[in-house]
Design a protein that fits this description.
single chain; alpha/beta; Beta-Lactamase; Rossmann fold; Helicase, Ruva Protein, domain 3; 3 domains; five-stranded antiparallel β-sheet; five-stranded parallel β-sheet; 16 strands; 42% helix; binds adenosine-5'-triphosphate; binds magnesium ion
Length: 505
């Protein structure tokens, strides 16, 4: 009985009945007009799916899809988000292996407002009416694909072993160990002062390994605030983390799957994350933040640090078990002053590369200029050498540069009059502590005021900043975290400024 007569004889409708019919016909209408409809329970498991939709995702019998997680049936489905948040996603595009579909997802609530499931409709036919939006979307997709391609390119190794210049016995030993490391799968630990080529070698090892065609993904531990590191490593589930968009985030561990994960400045890793990293390395799986999803990832680890890891272990700032796990194959990169025979070949190789980049004649260096470079202590190692040469190539128009032109560019860390101790490190052994081999550099030095007339304010400030940061680094034996603390800025800010003054090197 759906009509009720009131005592006066007028007809009243049964409101509940109309509401119920309304819901049903809404569902039927959507079902008829949509190409696909499916319903999930509160755990996002499929409880019903229509035949057409099931067939589109490879299930000839819809029954086979019942009980499966929605993502197992419809890859990229966001139904789990709907049942978790209880909020609808009224209009969205669902990527499929064929054309994308316009989808609507609604939560199903019980009488108490609790979400007990969700229903999704896919409206492919409606795409025709949505052609302008779709054209816009396709364009955005094409741009995304191009961006991804260039990212893929960026994730390839930039250097090979051939990029590592040096024929001194110490350099040859480093290359020999690196080649050997490329042939195996165990973790590699690269140790050495700042600017000695750890990152370059990491690229070389990846490029020489069986994983060369897979990504090389870098995490610079020191450059990322502690609070963001876990997400950076392991990713986050949708909505798990404020500041991450609702679709969540893929961590570097997952991005590097099948390839190499380069953990730069590993000595700066907070202890809590060290435990998680150790677990991920042991189990080869991890859980993104806020998810109950287990991600398996097959990565080869290369870690690098300029810090004294055994000392950090002794101080309790680095987990001994993680250290032993990473320290299977360690390579010590000698400081430049311990392999002086490589200085001139490095100068020639770098000047040639920079001259080609700057589209100028290969710049020459007079004997006195070469002598000046040879006498210098190079606390910033090859990176510092490269920076100096970059400035020479940029600033000097002459084809041949002399010592007088070069000297001011060596900045505050100019040649120490104290005789430099020649190779103290035998290949494969840890390098001697920085302070022992460069007494002059470690002593505090006044920051010079750049010679004014030739300079713009910006250039003068940049020079000051570079010298100031360099001094702070020297005073702390190349340890960025310590240098940053000493001058009162964050590690991340220190890195950023350093990269800016070094032109991104
Ligand atoms: N043996 C080498 N041959 C040619 N270039 C080198 C060599 N070693 C280092 N370089 C160059 O010096 C610069 C610094 O090297 P890299 O970034 O690998 O140093 P690093 O050891 O990672 O330093 P940091 O500890 O400060 O991160 C780069 O531009 C790199 O190409
Ligand atoms: Mg580095």
């Amino acid at each position: 009985m759906h009509k009720i007569a009131d005592p006066g004889g007028a007809l009243l409708f049964d409101y509940d009945y109309v509401a119920r019919r309304g819901m049903e016909s809404l569902f039927r209408t959507f079902e008829n007009f949509s190409e696909g409809t499916f319903v999930v329970d509160e755990h996002a498991r499929v409880v019903w799916i229509n035949k057409r939709y099931a067939a589109r995702f490879g299930f000839t019998n819809p029954q086979d899809a019942i009980g499966l997680d929605c993502e197992q049936v419809i890859p990229n489905s966001l139904m789990r988000e709907v049942v978790t948040t209880g909020k609808p996603i009224l209009l969205d595009l669902l990527e499929t292996d064929r054309e994308p579909m316009i989808v609507t997802r609604l939560p199903i609530k019980d009488d108490n407002g609790r979400t007990i499931g969700g229903v999704g409709f896919a409206l492919f036919d409606e795409l025709k009416a949505l052609t302008p939006i779709f054209a816009h979307y396709s364009r955005a997709q094409a741009e995304l694909a191009a961006a991804r391609r260039s990212l893929d390119h960026a994730r390839r190794a930039k250097y090979t072993f051939a990029s590592f210049v040096g024929a001194s016995p110490a350099a040859q030993e480093v290359k020999r160990q690196a080649r050997r490391a490329a042939l195996v799968e165990s973790p590699v630990l690269l140790l050495g002062e700042t600017g000695t080529g750890k990152e370059l070698l990491a690229h070389g090892i990846h490029a020489g390994s069986a994983r060369a065609e897979r990504p090389l993904v870098t995490v610079n531990v020191a450059a990322i605030p502690d609070t963001l590191l876990e997400v950076e490593f392991f990713g986050a589930a949708p909505g798990a983390y404020t500041g991450v968009d609702r679709k969540g985030r893929v961590g570097k561990f997952e991005l590097a799957d099948g390839g190499t994960l380069f953990l730069d400045e590993i000595g700066d890793m907070p202890l809590a994350l060290q435990s998680k990293l150790l677990r991920a390395l042991q189990d080869r799986e991890f859980e993104p933040l806020g998810s109950n999803r287990i991600v398996r990832s097959d990565v080869r680890i290369i870690a690098a640090t300029s810090a004294d890891l055994p000392a950090l272990v002794a101080e309790g700032r680095f987990r001994a078990d993680l250290y032993y796990r990473l320290n299977v194959l360690s390579i010590n990169l000698p400081p430049l002053r311990a392999r002086r025979a490589d200085l001139l070949p490095l100068v020639y190789a770098i000047v040639e590369e920079l001259s080609i980049k700057a589209e100028r004649h290969p710049m020459g260096l007079r004997d006195d200029a070469l002598q000046l470079l040879s006498d210098y202590d190079w606390p910033g190692n090859v990176r510092e050498l490269r920076n100096v040469l970059e400035r020479v190539v940029m600033l000097c128009d002459e084809d041949s540069v002399d010592a007088a032109t070069l000297a001011p560019l060596l900045g505050a860390r100019r040649a120490s009059p104290v005789p430099v101790v020649e190779p103290v490190t035998s290949p494969g052994e840890p390098s001697a502590p920085a302070a022992e081999t460069r007494p002059a550099a470690a002593a505090p030095m006044p920051v010079p005021v750049p010679e004014a007339p030739a300079q713009s304010y910006a250039a003068a400030m940049a020079q000051f900043e570079a010298a100031f940061l360099g001094q702070a680094l020297d005073a702390c034996g190349g340890r960025v975290a310590e240098a940053a603390a000493r001058i009162g800025i964050s590690r991340a800010a220190f890195y950023k400024k350093l990269a800016a003054t070094r032109g991104g090197l």
